[in-house]
Amino acid sequence: MPVKLTRFFSTLFSIKPNEWDSVFYFFLIFLVFSFGASFARSIGMALLIQNLPGQLPLMFILIDLSVMVGSMAYAKYTKKVSGLRILQFFFISMAVFAFIIQCLLIFVINWLPALTWIYGLFFVGFFFFYVLIFIHIGSVVASYFNAVQVKRVTTVINAGIPIGGTLGGLVLVFCLKVLHLSPNYLIIVLGLSCLGVLALLKVVNARLSPVRSSVSETRGIPKSPFHELVSAFKYIINSRLMIYMSLGLIFFVIANKLLEYQYQVIIYPAIYPDATSRTSFFALYEIFANLTWLLIQLFVTSRLIVGLGVGVTNLIYPMLAAIVSLSLCLYFYWNPYNVVDNSVGLMLLLAVITQFVNQEMRGALRTPANNLLFNAIPPNQWGVNKAFLNGIVFPFSTTLAGSFLIFMTSNNQLFDVTDLSYILPSIALIASLIGIVMAFPQWRAYNEGVFGLLNRRLFDHNADINSRKSGDLRLVIEEKLNSHDPHHVIAALEMIRLLQLGQFSNPVGTLMLKVQHTELEETKPLELEAKHLEIDSKRLKNEAKHLPAGSTERIELEEQVTACRNKLNQTRNALATIKSSHFDIKKHCLDTLAALPQTHTNANFLIELLSVESDTTILAITLKHLSLFGNVNFNNQIEKFLSHNTPQVFIEAALCLHNHPEYRNKKVVAEKILQRLEENRDSEELPLYLYALGELKQQQYIFYLLPYLDNSPRPDVRLAALMAYMHMLEGQLDPYKDRLITALSSEDNRMRIAALQALKECQPLEDWTTVIDLLGAKDRAVVNESKELLRLSLGVCRHALIKELFKEDISVQQRFEILSLVYTRLNELQKERLRQMADKSLQMFIKINCLSRIHRQSKEKGKAHELITKLLEEMAENQLLQVVTVITYETDGNLEFFQRVTRGLLSNSRANQGNALEVLLNAGEKYLTERIVKYFDERFTDIHVYHRVHLLLYDEPLDITESNYDTHLFLLNNDLLKACLFYSYKDQVQMPRLVLTKKSRELLIDKPQKKKAVAA
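Above: the chain sequence. Below: its structure as C-alpha cells.
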C-alpha cells in the first residue's frame, strides 16, 4: 500500500505499520470469500423456499448434523495440522462442491426438473462448508496477532465480509436485472471466489509468520475424533468460560432460528411470493445491509471492544435480539387478523431490522466479541473446543429449535400462522434474556482465563474428572493400613493424623509394634548373612595373599572374593531398603499417635517401642513425643536413656524428664546437660546441647551461652546460642534488643528469622532501616517475618516506610513489599507522585532499551561487551517491573498478579506479551497501562522506532544516537556497569570521563570490603 494511504488508515483505525501486511491479506481473504458467499446465500435461500417450501426447519437440522460429523474430523486434525493448511483444504473442498452443484443444476433444469432435492443438497452443503470455514478462520487470524492486537485489527479484517457481501449483492442484482440471468447458473461464482482465496492463502503462507500456534507442541497418544471431543468436553466442564459460552450459544441459536423462521417463512413469502422478486430483494438487501454492517464494523465495533472491553461488548448482541423479538411479538400480537395489505411497509421494516440484527449484527458484533473470548483459552485448545461448540452444542441447539418448529408448524389445528407470528418471537425474547444473563459470568470468566494463561503450568495437565468416589472412609483407611504397599499405609496414617481420628489409636499402635517385630524378623537373617559373608571375604582374601601371583589357585580365590563382596553389597542394599521402608512407617505412626488424644494407651505404645527399638532416630522421636504426655508417668523407663551415647537420644530424654511435672530430679538433668556441653565444646553436636540448655528456660545458665553467641566462628553454633538465648529470656528481651538488631545483619537467614521473631516481643524500634532493608532479601521467609514485624508496629514505622518508598535506588521487591504495607494509607498526592515515578521508570525503560539496541549493533566490541549487554537488559527489566509494581497496587492486585504479568511482558513470545497486556487492560488502570500497550505494540526494527515512541509518549525527542550513546551509558547508575565501562575504555587513548564509585573500584580490583562479624 502507498505510504501516505497507510499512514491515513493507521491513524483512522489504530493499526500499527508493522501490522498492515497481515491485516491487508486477511482483509482480502474475507472480501473475496464473502463476495462468492453472498451469491450462494441469496440464491440458495430463494431456490429452497421456492422448490422445497416448508422444509427450512429440516434443512437446519441437516446442516447441523453434517457440521457435527465434520467437527469430529476437524477436532482430530486441528492439533496435528497447521491452521492454514486446514483452511486451504476447506476452500478446495468448497470450490469442488460448487462446480459439481453447478453442473448438476444445469442437468436438472434442462432434463430432470423433478429432482428438487438438489436445491436442498446445495443449501445444506454450502452452509456446511460456510460454518466450518467461519469456525476455523477466526483461529487462523488470531494466530497471527497477540491478544491486544487482535482486538484492534479484527474489526478492520472483518470489514472484508460486508464489503465483499455488498459487492456480491451489486453484481448479483446486475446479473438478474440487467443481464437477466437465471439464479441457477450463478453458483459457479462461489467456486471461483474459493480459488481466489486459495491464491491469497499461498501468499500468506509465504510472507507471514504466526504468533500463536494452534498445533500442540507436545504430541501425545493419537486420539480418535470422538475422543478428541470427549477431551474437549472434559476441558469445558472444568472451564467456567466454556460452560457459560456453551449455555450462551444454546440460547443464541434458539432465538436466532426462531427469528429466522419468522422473517424467511412468515413475512417475506407474504410480501414477495415470486422466487425471482425475492432473490432480487435479497440482493438489494445484501447491498445496503452489508454497507451498514461495514460502517458499524469499522467505526463502532472496534471502539466498543477497545473502550468497553470484550465482556461488555458481548452483552450488546443479546440485548438487540431481545429488542427486535419484543417488537415482533407486540406487532403481531396486536394484529390478530393479520392485515397484511394495510401494514406491508411496517411489517417489511420489522423483517429487515430483524434480519439485520439476526444476520449482519451477528457478524458485526457477536462474532468478533465471541471470537475474542477464545483469547482466554490456550491456543492448542482453540480447534477442539470450537469443534465441540459448533459440532455438538450448536447442532444440539439447532435440532432443539428445528424440532420445536416442526412440531409447531406441522400441527395446524393447534397453531395457525397468526398464532405462530407472535408465539415464536415471544420464545425468542425469553431465550435472548437468558443470553443476557449468561453474558455476565462469561465476562468474569474471560478476565480470569486471560490471567490464568500467564501461568505457564496452568494447562500442562488435564484434570482427571473421572476419579472414583470412595465409599465409607473407615473402610478405606482400614484397607490402606493393611496394605502391603508402604505408600498406601503412609497415606492412611496421614489421613488419620490430619483428621485426628482417635478411634484408630489401637490400630496405629499395633501397626507400629508389628512393623518393628517384622523388621527384626526380616533383618536378623540378613544381618547374620552379611556378617558371615564379610568373614568369608576376609578369610579368602588372606588365603589368596599367601599364594603366588598369577597362579590358578590365587585367581580362583580372588574371583570368590569378588563374588562374596558382590553378594555382601546386595545383602546390605536389601537391609537398607527394608529398614528405610519400616523407618518411614514407624515415623508416621509416631507422628500420628502424637496428634491423637494423649491417652494412657497411646503412651504405653510409645514406651513399648522404646524397649525394643534400636534405631537412634526413632528413639529420639519417640522420646520427643512422650514429652507431650504430662499426665502419664513413665519417668523410670526414660531415665535409663540419660546414659545413652547418642546426643539426640540423650537430649530428648533429658528434656522429656525436665518437662514432666512429676519429675523431682530436674537439677540433675540440667547438670548432665551442662556436663555434656563442656565435654563437646568443639564437636559437631555442640548446637544440640545449646538447644537443650535453652529449652530448660533457666536464666541462671545464660552466661554459659554468651561465649558461643559472641565469639564462635561457626554460624550453626551462633544460631543455636541465639535461639537458646531467646528461650531463656522468655519475653524479657527489651534490654537485649541491640544484640537482636545486630543479628539481623547476619548472612545466616535462620539467625535473621529468629531475631525478627524475638523483636516482635520487644518495644518498637527507634531506627527501622535495618528491618526495612530486609524486605529486599532473597529468602521469602525473611521477607515475611520482616513484613510481620513492620505490620505490628505500622503506626510507628509508617513514615520511615513512606520515606524509603520514594527513594529512587531501592529494589523492585523492596518497593513492592513496602507498598503492600502502606499503599492504603497513602494520600492522593503521594499516589500521584508514585504514578509519576512509574512514568519516569517507563521513560528510563525506553532509553535503556534504545542504548541496549545501539550497544548490540556496535562494531567495536570489547572484552566486556556481552556483560554490558546483559546488564542493560537487567536494568531495563528492573525499570519495567517498577511500573508494573505501581499498576499492581493501583488495581488492587497481588503478588501473583505481579509475577504473571511481568513474566508475560518479559517473555520473548508475542503471544505471552499480548496476554499480559490484556490482563493489564482488564485490571482497570488506564494511564500507565495505555502507555505500556503503546510501547509493546511497536516492532522495534531500528533506533528510530524508539525515538518515535518516546516522542509519542513524552512529547520530547530522545537525544540518544550512535555517536553519543556511550555518554548516556556513563550516566546510568550501576556500579558493575561503571566497572565494565572503565575496563572496556581503559586501553583507549581517549577515554570518556567516568567517575567511579567505591563499589565500582572494588569490583575492578576484586577486593570487596570485608563484612563484619554478625555478633560483634
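Residues 499 and 597 are 12 Å apart (CA to CA).
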